[in-house]
Amino acid sequence: MIILKNLKKRFSANSPWITDGIDLQIPDGQLTCIIGRSGEGKSVLLKQIIGLIPPTSGTILIDDLDVTTLSEKDLSQVFAKVGYVFQFAALLDSLDVFENVGLPLFEQGMSYAEIEPIVREKLSLVDLSPDETMHKFPSELSGGMKKRVGLARTLVTNPKIILYDEPTTGLDPITTRIIHELISSMQKKLKLTSVVVSHDPEIFKFADNIALLDDRKIKYFGDAKTIWESTNPHIYQFIRGLTEGPIQTEIVHSKDKS
Amino acid sequence: MVARIAEKIGGKVISSCNALGLFILFFVNMLITLVTTPLRVKKLFAQMEHIGVDSLSIILLTGAFSGAVLALQSYVGFKRFGAEDFIGPVVALSLTRELGPVLTGLMVAGRAGSAIAAELGTMQITEQIDALKTLNINVNQYLMVPRIVASVLIMPLLTLFSMICGIVGGYVISVFVLGLNGEQYITQIQSYLELSDIVGGLIKSSVFGLILAWVGCYKGYYTTGGAKGVGMATTQSVVLSSILILISNYFLAAMLFE
């Protein structure tokens, strides 16, 4: 289980708070989606969970391991448990798909012969043909393929938890659907704990839980299946895309100013 | 008013001290990584090729024309005293002790140092460096140390080529343009040039190699702000490494050729 306790983040003493007292419990073996408006700090939150960005204060527990107290070196314990799929895949430009996916294994000192079947397996798992994609470079892949290769690379380390940072940004609706189904099937097949940061309502169909981040805090946490029936004013406004409600929008701000 | 000015100056001093501390700490981390982890030999050779072999043509050209112009200008002055025979030693001493290492350092800083900053900066803003961290890969060992060691090792070789080309350039101008005795040019160099002149120049070039790669890696690693940030990191890398090369050149000259 991932537990966040009173998590606060700002980048300097004079800058505004990005998150200000987040309390959240993410259950094991489920797909939890964190939603919220652009610029609310969802990606920053995700990077704090894995230890890429240190929080200003608060606690992050992953299976009783306090991420906030770990040194840079000891963060390897977190990286061994938690995988991260980046918004734009973050594939290494200079390496082909095989080298990208097999990179962690090459670094462990495994041979080409040992790595090849594993890379093939992981690429097949994300519905990519190993023979067609293995020797392509990231620049030769479509957006959807890059995301799948990014996921395959994350799966190579056999993580228990996968964090997805806006996995469908910039994709067409069909590819978005395919990626969501892939995330859901991975989670079920490999019994993973998945955390997806998104603002795409399509993900609600696949998620178990929804957390809404607004105004630097978690304003809603609940079952994804009943989200459309929720009377929570924040979630009601957000999922219907209403401009009127407790969630501040630029339009409301400008009205207030005038 | 006075308080505001003092606050501004104080803020600048603090941020400069912070940046200097970070810059030195970055280098200390590289040293620790170099000592505590195995060197990536394959990556080292790739970087030596990138920094060294790919810079060779501009280094040869710079060296040859520096020697040529030195011979031409020396001839004008030396002719007034009837000391044309000393053009050879002047060209050789200038190139081995000063012009060879400094010009090579500046040229490689402009070509390879900027490329290091741009490459690492792009990797930083596209989250490729974060991706390496989450895959439990030591970023210093994987990206920085091979570049720094390669630069330290390859710079003396480049400088040696620059020195040779400069002396040859001076010979060509002295003999074929100015009509001086070629044998005299070589004999005088043999009489006045000492091994310590060449070794001193090569030691200087190694230090310049360290500076340009250190600055390039540092500026690239701490790049923020998208494409504009990469552009700024690249420019700052060339400016800072050029300044540091010129400043350190004075102290190295004072130490090595006392």
Short summary of the structure?
The complex is a heterodimer of chains A (258) and B (258). Chain A has helices spanning 42-50, 76-81, 97-107, 112-125, 130-133, 143-155, 173-189, 233-240, 250-257; strands spanning 2-9, 19-26, 31-36, 57-62, 65-66, 82-85, 161-165, 193-197, 209-214, 217-223. Chain A is of the alpha/beta class and 258 residues long.
What does this structure look like?
- The complex is a heterodimer of chains A (258) and B (258).
- With 258 residues, chain A is α/β, with parallel strands linked by helices.
- Chain A has a single domain (2-257), classed as 3-Layer(aba) Sandwich (Rossmann fold), CATH 3.40.50.300.
- Chain A contains nine helices and ten strands.
- Chain A has helices at residues 42-50, 76-81, 97-107, 112-125, 130-133, 143-155, 173-189, 233-240, 250-257, and strands at residues 2-9, 19-26, 31-36, 57-62, 65-66, 82-85, 161-165, 193-197, 209-214, 217-223.
- In chain A, a hairpin with a 2-residue loop joins strand 4 and strand 5.
- In chain A, helix 3 (97-107) packs across helix 4, helix 3 (97-107) runs parallel beside helix 6 (143-155) and helix 4 packs across helix 6.
- The longest helix of chain A is centred in the C-terminal third of the chain and has 17 residues, at 173-189.
- Chain A starts with a strand and ends with a helix.
- Chain B is an all-alpha fold and 258 residues long.
- Chain B folds into two domains: 1-36; 40-256, no CATH class.
- Chain B is 88% helix and 0% strand.
- The radius of gyration of chain B is 22 Å and the shape is elongated.
- The chains are: A alpha/beta (258), B mainly alpha (258).
- The interface between A and B is medium-sized, with 23 and 14 residues.
